[in-house]
């Protein structure tokens, strides 16, 4: 449901609370950049928050997922923001608007999701007098992968803000892998850090027998970004086919104009005209993707936690991915799949060719992937972990 104009930037004030009258239920405010991101990744956290007794409010840029978020029992505050804009004036304007939002809502807990909101929302929440912060970077993204002057400066500033300026007794961190915590100057084993996984419903992506082969169908499910290794995936497929492997590459996902590394529809359409490569655009049927494909591929340059790989593991599919943070927590080399060097397509091609030629190995690695998923990455595990944190915060009030 698109929202524009003054309504998109409005912050609705809450009724004043009379002196001496306590609010019956504590309030948790999520600050997140995009409604689609929240709807596809964070409903287990919402259920954990509501189970801990919180009223839940979500401030985000609203496009197509408002009704879905509201069905989870959340109240939505439309908050327009532009992820590409990182200039000083835009940063100051965003922080000022967030301060107004937090002051109007008076939440007991502000939970900031993704690095931009962790930094800007965290600063705003502190300046607005928020009692408790939960900071969830969900990966370090473009800022840590690019090497321009702005990105280099950001890599010096962000750890100071997140790991020092915002760090107090009432600050809690959620990380999907230990390396991101270290990059931000935070001990991943510290008492203020909670480790989490993706949180996928096992019933939503049941294990299924692989489809007939050949051809052996390889799927990439991701935003169509250069940093997701799409170019390397295409190169690896070409090389595997040249080695005689009967593989096809199928790309599922949309470009993301808000991300500086986004590929264009023209590029993707051009590749899709090549034999053995098809770009399908975004899909709402992840279970169907893994029912119809044999191998998961993600040659990303870095992740917080690669949800797409967790979903492939749930579907009992072997995985070829890069040996980077957010991927090696899911895939152990030679067990659930193969880990290959980042930005290098030849080894990925050899891994694809090996799996394409060995259905027994595919089945063995797929079963191992499903078991690892059930142990670490289900919704139940995530709800229990985050619910424990929310309960502890509530009890401290």
Describe the secondary structure blueprint for this structure:
Layout: H1 5-9, E1 27-34, H2 35-41, H3 43-51, E2 55-61, H4 66-71, E3 74-78, H5 88-105, E4 109-113, H6 115-127, E5 132-136, H7 141-145, H8 149-165, E6 171-175, H9 178-183, E7 193-195, E8 216-221, H10 230-242, E9 247-252, H11 265-272, E10 277-281, H12 286-292, E11 295-298, H13 307-314, E12 319-322, E13 337-340, H14 346-356, H15 359-376, H16 379-396
Parallel strand pairs: 1-2, 1-4, 2-3, 4-5, 5-6, 6-7, 8-9, 8-11, 9-10, 11-12, 12-13
Proportion of residues in helical segments: 40-55%
Strand order of the largest sheet: 3-2-1-4-5-6-7
β-strand amount: 15-25%
Uncertain stretches: 1-22
Radius of gyration: 22 Å
Number of domains: 2
- How many alpha or pi helices? 16
The rough form would be described as globular
Terminal Cα span: 36 Å
Structural class label: alpha/beta
Give the name of the CATH superfamily of the largest domain.
Answer: Glycogen Phosphorylase B
Tell me the total number of β-strands.
Answer: 13
Mean pLDDT, to the nearest integer, reads: 90
Query: What is the highest CATH level, the class of the largest domain?
Result: Alpha Beta
- Largest β-sheet summary: 7 strands, parallel
Describe the structure.
- The chain is α/β, with parallel strands linked by helices and 397 residues long.
- The chain folds into 2 domains: 5-199 and 379-396, Glycogen Phosphorylase B (Rossmann fold), CATH 3.40.50.2000; 216-376, Rossmann fold (3-Layer(aba) Sandwich).
- 43% of the residues lie in helices and 17% in strands.
- The chain is built from 16 helices and 13 strands.
- The strands form 2 sheets. The protein has a 7-stranded parallel β-sheet, sandwiched between helices.
- Strand 11, helix 13 and strand 12 form a beta-alpha-beta unit.
- The longest helix has 18 residues, at 88-105.
- It is globular, with a radius of gyration of 22 Å.
